[in-house]
Amino acid sequence: MSWGTELWDQYDNLEKHTQWGIEFLDKYTKFVKERAEIEYSYAKQLRNLSKKYQPKKNSKEEEDQKYTSCKSFLTTLQELNDYAGQHEVISENLTGHIIAELTRYMQEMKQERKSYFHEGRKAQQHIETSWKQLEASKRKFERDCKEADRAQQYFEKLDADINVTKADVEKARQQSNLRHQMAADSKSDYSSTLQKFNQEQHEHYFTHIPNIFQKIQDMEERRIKKLAELMKKFAEVDRQVIPIIGKCLDGITAAADSVDVKRDTQLVVEAFKSGFEPPGDIEFEDFSQPMQRTVSESSLSNSKGEGRSETKGKPKGKLWPFIKKNKLMSLLTSPHQPPPPPPSSASPSAVPNGPQSPKQQKEPLSHRFNEFMTSKPKIHCFRSLKRGLSLKLGSGPEDFSNLPPEQRRKKLQQKIDELNKEIQKEVDQREALTKMKDVYIKNPQMGDPNSVDPRLSELSQNIERLRQECQKFEGWLAEVEGRLPTKNDMNRRQSGVYDGQSTQSTQNTPAVSNCAQDRESPDGSYTEEQSQESQVKVTAPEFDDDFDDEEPLPIIGTCTALYTFEGHNEGTISVTEGEVLNVIEEDKGDGWTRVRRSEDEEGYVPTSYLDVCLETNAKES
Hints:
Strand order of the largest sheet: 4-3-2-1-5
Helix content: 55-70%
Oligomer: single chain
Strand content: under 5%
Number of strands: 5
Radius of gyration: 56 Å
């Protein structure tokens, strides 16, 4: 089926149809462009998402990568980044292979269509010109025939009139003959023109126009075929990256399958294991026989005399697993700055270390246990105080003695490994410089051998220093590994029972410092001290009174809050205007008074914020 024969008279409609074909091609080009932009934007968003959730360097997130679930998530982010890269490939292929080709082909098609319709327009103009020439020849022939008829009639009229002279008749005859000759010439010209037009018209409708329309038809078919090919290529662009996208998804699936639940739980144990044993049982104290009760080292409450004798004898039982992690630091959180003038904002001041007031008498066990659970723990020696301060300030000791034994061992091993790597690095540099020096000695023209000596000396000093430091940490590690507590030792330390108060009072054993015995602390810190430190005798028992006293401070008066105080800092307590509280420690000159709201809520408040009323015996003391 040919447009030249079937659509020979549809020149205008074909022109409109081919114009619509170009516009449709342009429409599809815009569609592919928008698809490419969407793919590029999607890839960019995926990359930003992957980058957003990547673990930051030198942060806790980077430390968490030891867990298999975190490693799996990191692999997922990496695979997602590769997945985004494939969408970028789709965008690039759509832009480079389809859009560029569509744009180029559309320009070529516009030029081709323009040339074909220009050729058809010329053929149409030519046939119209021939038609006009035919019409002109026809009109001339018709006009000459009419003029010849009129000349013949005029001649016949004069010839029949007897009154007309022969000269006029002869003149009319000649005019008639001339008109007939002109009519005959016009007829001949019209005949030739008509024959020529018919031939040109035949060529126009059966040769020229069909050829032109056939070219337009071929152009339109090529456009449709090209569009189909590009649609296939549009799908192939996606199909080409499907295997790689499948690999990315397989990688994510494999990462999910690699999650090891048991391994992660074991890592939690390795990360937080302290190495301590659980505390032993608390011994029963028979209060029905107050004069003959058996005292346990794990007792929660002791009398004044018993507390003194236990301090000088065996160590007290540990109940730190029941105490909050920040109990040790609560003693160090008394104010570090002068109190604010009322009623401006408060800021902490220095730690009040004045002597405590006399203890109260023994209270019921349940009440004492509640106080034990909520009161601030006492530091047993200045070494523990120093360690707590170092923790508070964020600078741990060099031997990691602030950590539990298991964590301390890991930190020491990690430090030793780092030092060994540094030593190996320095040794490699020294060997390289030694070889360079040998080359300089053999070939003096290459350099001065003596120029290497300063650097070699510096490296040797660094290696020696690093080795000494490594030996120091290895000694600490050996000490930790040799002194990790066993279950029997912990049971003896935590649940040992004294033979009795009378036996303890009759023994004249020197008092031993509790510093070495109290290596464990409520916040999980642990200090391995040299064995000889545990044999140091206590020369100042008054410090034990300050730090070992586990009795709650007695109430020495009452106070009324004059202003509202927001206790945001550790060691302080918030009060409201008009609130009445109990005073348990008066101002020692630092501008702070220690008050108690209830059995488990106490802290420091600026003295200028309070109206204090002390009891008479407290004032006298």
